[in-house]
Amino acid sequence: MIDIKNYDNDNIFSKILNKTIPSKKIYEDEKVLAFEDINPQAPIHVLVIPKEKFCSLNDFCLNASNETISEFIRSIEKIAKILKLSNGYRIISNIGKEGGQEVPHLHFHILGGKQLGKIID
Q1: What is the DSSP letter of 119?
Q2: DSSP-assigned letter for residue 36
Q3: By CB neighbour count within 10 A (0-12 exposed, 13-18 middle, 19+ buried), where does 13 fall?
Q4: How far is the C-alpha of 50 from the C-alpha of 76, rounded, in Å?
Q5: Residues facing 36 on adjacent strands
Q6: Which residue in 28, 33, 48, 73 has its CB near the most CB atoms, within 10 A?
Q7: What are the counts of helices (DSSP H) followed by strands (DSSP E) for the chain?
């Protein structure tokens, strides 16, 4: 069972899932949505979110079914193929305040389209 008592239904990704805020969709299936980041940090910058309510990667790991976890992770490879990132890409998930998480809904960033520098300067 998923504990959603701390989930904020007013977060921007929840609004995107509810279609109250538009997004430029890249990929969608029953459990996952991927869309372009509105403030790209690389030539290709896509956000991947589960359609279920998870606040962070920690919440996801503790509360998602093994099937949901597997399908979410496998979707990243599918999305990378759609984006034609055959030369490589970076995936990032920020967790919590000190990790730089700004939206309290699990999301992975897929960055690519150029040679990426160091993760932290």
Answers
A1: S
A2: E
A3: buried
A4: 11
A5: 46
A6: 48
A7: 3, 5
Element (H, E) at 109: strand 108-112
Q: What is the pLDDT of residues 19-77, one digit of tens each?
A: 999 999 999 999 999 999 999 999 999 999 999 999 999 999 999 999 999 999 999 99
The verdict on whether 107 is a catalytic residue reads: yes
| Closest to 54 (Cα-Cα) out of 102, 6, 110 | 6
Taken in order of first residue, the domains within the chain and their CATH numbers are: 12-112 (3.30.428.10)
Integer angstrom CA distances of residue 52 from 1, 39, 99 = 12, 24, 22
pTM (two decimals): 0.91
From CA 62, how far away is CA 109, in angstroms rounded? 21
